[in-house]
Amino acid sequence: MNLNDRQKKAVQHVNGPLLILAGAGSGKTRVLTQRIANLIENHQVQPWEILAITFTNKAAAEMRERMTNDVGEDVLKNMWISTFHSMCVRILRRFGESIGYTKYFTIYDSAEQKITIKDVMKEMNINEKEFQVGAVFSHISSKKNQFILPRQALKESEGNFREHIIAKIYDAYQDKLYENNVMDFDDLLVNVCILFNNHPDVLSFYQNKFKYILVDEYQDTNCVQYELIRQLADKHKNLCVVGDDDQSIYGWRGADISNILEFEKDFENTTIIKLEQNYRSTKNILEAANAVVKNNENRKPKVLFTDNETGEQIELYVVKNEYREADVIAAQISKDLSEYRRDYKDFAILYRTNAQSRVLEEKMIQSSIPYRMLGGVRFYERKEIKDLVSYLKIIVNVQDDVAARRIINIPKRGIGAASIDKIQQAANDYQVNFYEVAKNIRQFGILGKTATEKVSVFANLIEELKELAQEENILALLQAIIVKTDYNNFLKETEPEDAADRILNVREFVSKAAAYVQSNEEANLNNFLEEITLVADVDNYDQNSNAVVLMTLHSSKGLEFPVVFMPGLEEGLFPSHMSASDEDKTKLEEERRLCYVGITRAREKLYILQAEERMTYGQIKAVEPSRFIAELPAEVIRINKVFASKKYAKKNNYEPTKKSDIEFKIWNPHKKMESTIIEDFVTGDIVMHRMFGKGTVIEKMKKKEDIFVTIKFESGEFKKLNTKFAKLQKV
Fold first, then answer.
1. Disulfide: which of 4, 173, 188, 273 matches 88 by Cβ 3.0-4.6 Å?
2. Catalytic residue among 8, 9, 12, 29
3. Residue 28 annotated among the catalytic residues of the structure
4. Which pLDDT band holds residue 170 (cuts at 50, 70, 90)?
5. What whole-number distance in Å separates Cα of residue 519 and Cα of residue 515?
6. In a 3-state reduction of DSSP, which class is residue 595?
7. Which sign does the torsion angle of CA 222, 211, 213, 206 carry?
8. One of 6, 7, 28, 184 is an active-site residue; which one?
């Protein structure tokens, strides 16, 4: 099996609770998949008796692919390998009617949740300035993550005016979701717990079905997920959880690190196995990671080690500000591309906050470095995609008021806000859903003749599409929506500047539907909507796309890259200012774990950057180096002072006392580049670019010391490139 001794022990364990403490890069996915294969092949466990839970669709797909190689595709057909949310949807589609939902319920994303909360607050005459929708949304989500239902929230908040108002909003919000036959992300988990608690027969069915349960990334579970797993595993006790308390970084969204730290207390006779051998990173990178995370008190002790080479030292760059930081990163990428024959996809820039991305993006563009951002506007959150998804949602669930209100005047049908408000008011008064009023608008008699006719046209379209959905597949249905609404022309008329990009997104969505139909024998609209609603940012990460990746440190967990840049290691930014005043150190320790995660994403090379000053809220402020820098072992780092003052370096002990400890050098990132600039390009030259291919120079210009050429590539694309960074070769 090509496993080390501890991995073998974890794979061969069969019965009883098992806690696998898997350090970063220790091969946990291989252990999980081979453990499942061992149960099936050597212990006569049937595939449908195994439940494997991951946190992302990407991880579930990877596990299923590996399992296919281990035991074959036929064996896996009836095995549940899914995320928590997908598992819960599957259970609720079958048994949701027991708690009052139809099997055609739809799922709200965060934007739709906020719209519904806003509607509830409006009906309750609650001022949005005093109770901001985003804050109320977070509060409600936090309650659900703790498995605190509205009735309990109301009771616990008595005597606290503000919390009691939010509890009332929570209560009314849940009623609204129920009326609309809708659940939000948190409800998927909470409602399965409610189902199990209120219907022991359903719980017993799944307890008998799943004799062996495996949970990946257990350190990220919250209270509700813990309760779900506890209930399911209660009968057979064959629960295997895999995780790393040192990578618990989602406390801010409800994850409870005590679930993994106290696992053996919650489940008697637990076997604990530590996987500490790392197969990803160099010795220097691991030494840095171990040195930082050992400063946390609330953890299970473990030390990562590797048989990999020592590797290069970690480069620490001290720079003047965020602009020089971006300069260094861009120059270093260009330098490494040349010297180490790397590809753009080998580089990742991991930052603490999304606000840091602006300057970095600008520099990537200026330097003609292709890049992708994870964590920006998700594909399925784009306006044009949400419009089309809303059509699909109302077709499958006419009780979905948010979807109906979104599309009743998209494309524009002349149905104004006043008419929409009257329809909603009638729905509230008669306690029916929005679409029911729209469908029977003539009987309600609440609008003028012209407006009534326009609403009827909308309702007739939806009824026509509902009939079509019974006869055609998802692809044909989506194409019919686009044609019958003349949606592409609507985009051209209303968004002329962005229409081309938006229409490309529409085409991509159609391609997604086509791929879904082709790869799913029993494709249905409900499952399609689930798949696109539950997709996460990391699920869209394509490691084969040749571009530098920009993402937050939180988004990077589970990924790895040959070269990693970590900019912004300064007090107040990383660790964040909120963690500095944390008396019980909970937030500070999570920040340190986040730093550990960032360090261990790097396989071969790690660059850490720290500025002397940074623009904050419109003001330039001096900043101090992060305490995490001081925790790095001197022997594994090399400090480079770029555009930084000697006074600042001396103040922060960056002047080495022993040359043998740290090599201190001043490096001009442009120096080598300047000597390699080709200035003799002329119009008509044929050139080769490593990413864009062959092209013809059609224009040349000089701006200060930089030379730019405009090239028409054989692909038909036109690119304006800086010769300093583009690495063009004449053909």
1. 188
2. 29
3. yes
4. very high
5. 6
6. helix
7. negative
8. 28
